Every structure is written in structure tokens, then in C-alpha cells.
Amino acid sequence: MRTQVAIVGAGPAGLLLAHLLQRAGIEAVVVEIRSREYAEQRVRAGVLEQGTVDVLIENGVGARLKREGLVHHGVELRFAGRGHRIDLTELTGGRSITVYGQQEVVKDLVAARLAAGAPLYFEASDVRVAGFDTDRPRVTFRHEGREHALDCDFIAGCDGFRGTCRASIPAGSLAVHERAYPFAWLGILAAAAPSRDELAYANHERGFALFSMRSPEVTRLYLQVAPDESLDEWSDDRVWSELHTRFAGDDGWQPNEGAILERGITGMRSFVAEPMRHGRLFLAGDAAHIVPPTGAKGLNLAVADVRVLARALARWYAAGEEEGLAAYSATCLRRVWRAEHFSWWMTSMLHRAPGEDSFRRRLQLAQLEYVVTSRAAATSLAENYVGMPFGTP
Ligand code: FAD
Ligand code: DHB
Asked: How far apart are CA 381 and CA 379, in angstroms?
């Protein structure tokens, strides 16, 4: 088998890259280890930056997003018993975010690819990448009992944090920058109408809590828990009681309760491997970098990476231009590091560290107070949250 670009991983990065390449007339084959059902049901991120929404709509995969996505113009920060709204749209000259589940983006992209009859292998095994130090890279895998060898011009490593692509780059070629956090998020989806229109991020003495949503009927909620916490220790009653405690405020607002449809615990980590390229292997999305979820940046960074990569590949195929590919890593990393800083900052401001002393607590509150009372500080949060425009970090 031969193709132009072999794409490893059918998450948002791999699927969107395949779609953008197809629109540029470039052939690709996508190889994914999980089943289609698994990829489409996996509950993860929910906040799309304005730039992410624009890319999906401009490229013809935003019809359902336009119909079902919930456009938000503000977010709330809750602390010391009070809620404070940050007016994202007013502070950013008209920008906004859209709440639309990551698995919905994945469903839309899978549907577009299958409708076009373009190759996408689910449930592949033994996926290996080789030859990317030469101009004859190759991806091998097993599918439905048969061995496949896929020769290509380039490999796109879009296989997430635990994928095979980054791990196949020779040790010593990548610099790794990393931070693990001493807490995790317990996330639930509840069959309950969202009791407010916008997200609320709460800093409480007992830890962080986040109110979000997926649709007019489904609420998404998160609680800070210990990194080694077991779901067995969290009965429905305990989850709701902890959420109510952490969201309590003088306005009396609370999330609505409902049947818990899904639950999971996610560890939190910051991670960047650079450069995001080795020879003809290009890393994109979580394969190259991870952020803690507090800034809602992970999915948006994956989209930004593949947008840069698709353009660079299009220029290479159309005119033999190397410049875009040569600049790929540095171009992406400017945005990545901005998002790394923002996500780390939001995480530090909103979570309770184990053994936290009164000094750190007072600094958090001082910072929150500053963000909600200074237009300059609120603008900084808002422009990062809605996403820096493309073309800037
Ligand atoms: P992924 O979505 O991880 O896709 C990679 C794909 O590659 C997967 O389908 C995987 O099955 C496949 N793959 C792996 N190994 C191989 C292989 N060897 N061969 C072929 N395919 C392979 N971000 C937020 O902003 N907010 C959140 O609330 C949030 N929650 C999250 C919860 C969890 C449990 C996780 C893991 C991440 C969460 N994120 C969140 C981050 C966000 O979901 C990611 O940043 C986003 O999925 C990145 O997309 P991606 O395509 O780069 O990687
Ligand atoms: C959601 C996830 C986030 O990480 C975040 O910061 C905001 C919302 C969500 O899943 O809805």
C-alpha cells in the first residue's frame, strides 16, 4: 500500500488532519487501534475556542456544531462564597467559546471521512512507524488478521500521549518538559438540565469544582480529587454533596441533580516534547504535549497543530516548499507554550494543593480578587480562554 501521508491515530488531531489534507487534494490513510464505537463515545473535552469552531465550519464539518453547539459569552469564577462573571465577548472584541463535546467533533469527522470513501482503519494492532529518518517512511500494522505495510512521504503522529510515534523517536532527540500535579479530576455526566447558561469554575477550601454542560438536558461536572482516588469511594450521594458544598455561594445557585450517566477520573499533567518533528515524522496534539484540563486547551491545541501541519504539507506538495515544514515545530510551540502557561496558571489559581499553607491560600484569593476586579487582568484571562487568534502565539 502507498499513500502520501500516513496518519497514526483517529482522535481529533488525526481525523481533522486527514480532512484538511483531503480538501487540499492530498491522500492520507488513518490507522487507529480502537474501535469506531470507542472513539466516538469517549467523553473528554467540551470547550471549543472560536478559532477551532471557525476551522471546522470553514472546512465543511461544522453543520451540526452550528446547530447544536452552545455559544457562551462569559464564564464565572466562584470563590469566598461569591460568583463573579468574566465577560469573554466584551473583553475580547466579540469572541466567544462554544460548548460541544469532543466525541461529537470526532463523530462529525469520522462521518465526513467515511462519506468521502477515504481510508480509515479502526481496530488496527501492532502499529509501528519506521524509516522516518529517510525519505521512505513506512507504517506497518495488522488489521482483520492481515499484515499491512503502508509506504508514504510523511507520517503524522496523532496517537495521543501514550501512542507509539513519540516513543519511536530515538532517545536523546527530544527535550521533554514536564510537571505532574498532586490531584486529579473526577468528571461526571448527569441527566439534568444545566441550571445556568455559562460555565462556573469554583475555588473552595475543599478543592476545585467545575460546572459545565453538553446539551440542554445534560450537565457535565468535575471535582478535584486525590490522584490515586478510586471511583468506588465516590457514591452518587457523596459526589452530589461535595459538588453542593464547593459551589455554595451567597446567590444560592446550585447545579441540578440527575442520574449519573458516566463517570471517570483523569490525572493532571503538563508535558511538552520538542521539537515536534523528527525527520519525516511530525507529532501533533497530545502526542507532543499535554495540558491540565483547567484552561480547556488540549483539544484546541490539537486542532491548531494540524491546521499548521496541513498548510505546510499543502505547500510542499503544491510547490516543493520546505519552509512551512521546517517552521512547523517552532510555529506550533509558540502557541503550545502560551497554553501551557495559561493552563498551569488557571490550575494553580483554582486548586487546593495537599498540605497547602495559609500563605499560598491567601495568594490564590488575592489573584482571584485581582482577576475579577481589574479589567486588565480579566482581559488577560479572557483572551487566553477564548484562544489567541491564529497567527499569534
Ligand atoms: P487523542 O484524542 O488522545 O487521540 C489519539 C488517538 O490515537 C486515539 O484515538 C488513540 O486510541 C489512538 N492511538 C493511540 N495509540 C495508537 C497507536 N499505537 N496506533 C494507532 N492509534 C493509536 N481536554 C480538555 O480541554 N478538557 C477536558 O475535560 C479534557 N478531558 C480529558 C479526559 C481524558 C481522560 C483525557 C485522556 C484527555 C482529556 N482532555 C481534556 C484532553 C483532550 O481530550 C485532548 O487534548 C485531545 O483528545 C487531543 O486530541 P488528539 O487527537 O491529539 O489525541
Ligand atoms: C470542560 C472541560 C474543561 O477542561 C474545562 O476547562 C471546561 C469545560 C467540559 O468538559 O465541559
From this structure: 5
Radius of gyration of the chain (CA): 21
Cell readout for 360 is: 499560598
Q: Exactly one of 293, 317, 328, 351 is catalytic; name it.
A: 293
For ligand 1, atom 31, the nearest C-alpha belongs to: 44
Helical (H) or strand (E) element with 22: helix 12-23
Task: Give the closest ligand to the alpha carbon of residue 44.
Answer: 1
Three-state DSSP at 33 gives coil
User: Distance, CA 294 to ligand 2 centroid (Å)?
Assistant: 7
**What ligand has the least distance to the C-alpha of 103?**
1
pLDDT in tens, 87-122: 999 999 999 999 999 999 999 999 999 999 999 999
> Whole-angstrom Cα distance, residue 386 to residue 153?
35
Would the pTM count as exceeding 0.90?
yes
Residue 393 has pLDDT above 60, yes or no: no
Are the beta carbons of 12 and 102 closer than 8 angstroms?
yes
CA of 293 to the centre of ligand 2 (A): 7
How far apart (Å, rounded) are the C-alpha atoms in residues 304 and 16?
10
- The DSSP-derived string for 258-284 is -EEEEEEEEEEEEEEEE-SEETTEEE-
Q: Which of 31, 120, 159, when mutated, tests ligand 1's pocket best, judged by the most ligand atoms within 8 Å of its CB?
A: 159
Closest CA to 14 of 104, 113, 99: 113
d(CA 21, CA 158): 14
User: What tens digit of pLDDT does each residue of 39-70 get?
Assistant: 999 989 999 999 999 999 999 999 999 999 99
